[in-house]
Design brief:
By secondary structure, the chain is of the alpha+beta class. The chain is built from 5 helices and 17 strands. It has one domain: Creatinase/methionine aminopeptidase superfamily (Creatine Amidinohydrolase), CATH 3.90.230.
């Protein structure tokens, strides 16, 4: 089921998204050679608590009795997504590092009262979810890596621009896929963006690659839809593998991968980024 959010709910999601954007910006400034992913994890937890939120990812069920071990996803180099911050790893010179973070906000009654926030009936904590990520370089990175980061960010911008009422999910996908392919990059096909707000992940699937225009999944976008748009782009082939931990996704050919994401709402006039 695709949920449409009310104006009051969108107001709260926007405020939570603003706070999450400030948290991610702080974390990205800390990405340097020699920094431990455990340090980033501790900082993420402290900042989310300070903001009055709750981690959307820690202990998230990954299937097969596996639960994600950290608040922060830290995916490095050929890790496409779901690289965990724990157990700790050291970031090295030249790495490209994707920090992906989700937050439920607000989760305490005093914060809901302060912001006159409605209660999310689908969550026991009552808050609303936002999700975002960005990939940055640690120290000096290669020209090849810099171009990948630039193009992937442009893919996100183009996807958001294509998200408007009356358009379809394929319009978002064509914008992303076309720009990536123009630069001879692979668009990951095993993973997609998603709806967000009532849950950390909800319908619809938001594709970064085109599907059949006649597919029932190629829905028309309507005001009130809240979407996490998140292109995952590889320098090499689009195919992926799963790491030995059964949840981290890797490029099949070992090439670099980049990932950018915003939570956006479809409005009467277009779309608005909520994680900014």
């Amino acid at each position: 089921m695709v949920y449409l959010k009310t104006a009051e709910e969108i107001r709260v999601i926007r405020e939570g998204g603003r706070r999450l954007a400030a948290i991610l910006a702080r974390l990205l400034r800390e990405v340097k050679p020699g920094v431990s992913t455990a340090y980033l994890e501790d900082l993420a937890n402290d900042l989310i608590k300070e903001a009055g939120g709750y981690s959307a990812f820690k202990d998230y069920p990954m299937g097969g009795d596996i639960f994600f071990p950290s608040t922060l996803c830290v995916s490095i180099n050929d890790e496409v997504v779901h690289g965990a911050a724990l157990p700790p790893r050291l970031i090295a010179e030249g790495d490209i590092v994707d920090l992906d973070i989700g937050m439920e906000w607000p989760v305490r009654p005093e914060w809901r009262a302060k912001f006159a926030a409605p209660i999310n009936p689908f969550s026991k904590r009552g808050g609303f979810f936002t999700d975002m990520c960005a990939t940055v370089g640690a120290g000096k990175i290669s020209a090849e890596a810099r171009k990948l980061l630039q193009v992937t960010r442009e893919c996100l911008d183009l996807g958001i621009k294509a998200a408007r009422p009356g358009a379809t999910l394929n319009d978002i996908a064509r914008a992303i896929e076309g720009h990536a392919q123009k630069n001879h990059y692979g668009v990951v096909r095993d993973l997609v963006g998603h709806g967000v707000g009532y849950y950390a992940h909800e319908k619809p699937d938001v594709f970064n690659f085109t599907i059949s225009d006649k597919s029932p999944e190629n829905i028309v976008l309507r005001p009130g839809m809240v979407l996490a748009i998140e292109p995952m782009i590889n320098i090499g082939d689009w195919r992926v593998d799963v790491a030995d931990n059964d949840f981290t996704i890797l490029t099949a050919d070992g090439s670099l991968s980049a990932h950018f994401e915003h939570t956006v709402v479809i409005t009467e006039r277009g779309s608005e980024i909520l994680t900014i």
